Amino acid sequence: MAQPTIRATGLNLTFQTNDGPVHALKDVNLDVNKGDFVSFIGPSGCGKTTFLRCIAGLETPTGGEINVNGMTPDEARRARAYGYVFQAAGLYPWRTIGGNIRLPLEIMGFDKAEQADRVKCVLELVDLAGFEKKFPWQLSGGMQQRASIARALAFDADILLMDEPFGALDEIVRDHLNEQLLQLWARTEKTIAFVTHSIPEAVYLSTKIVVMSPRPGRISDVIDSPLPRERPLDIRDSPEFIEIAHRVRDGLRAGHVDG
Description:
nucleotide-binding; alpha/beta; Rossmann fold; 2 domains; 9 strands; about 40% helix; six-stranded mixed sheet; P-loop_NTPase; ATP binding
């Protein structure tokens, strides 16, 4: 059997602060397989983003283990195993959209022709062909986030880590980007780990939903979605969708009671 793309075993993370220790993650065990779309949902401060940062090697666990593509997170980071999309698009205003997407490729030493090919390819993937010479301020918030996703895809990492990328957008734009993200996932077959506060977003996007409890962050439920991979937006009115959403809500409630 193939090794999971991401495996956490007995993962703990405690931050030392002036007010004493803060237990951010406690006994987290999780396997994410190649090609999964996994959403992490839970109340603020439950460790969703902290767990994503552990995968990315941006935080160091104080106990347990985490492996990414069979490597430590640090090794995986050096091997460019993942792209990371933050809550804010984080585009440099003085660089064009193409220039922003090229930045990691320049740092990695790709030649100019390869950079140009990759920028063209990822702009088409996120439906921004023709916007390469625009500056971030000339684009809407949703388009800026798509450019941020393109930048994370540019060096073709197997894994895409996404920390509430659509949280600041209005519902209509968010719905549209959810649809586009599913299409992108189907075309690229990336493994995606996605943090959200939205139950409908988690259920609509995911093959697996990880429900987390309040601090210390623990996994209170893991739901394997029975929904088909092809998901029109109106699937959200189906009994199957509503049933999964209820289970997520129940998991969140139970986590609060147990916590």
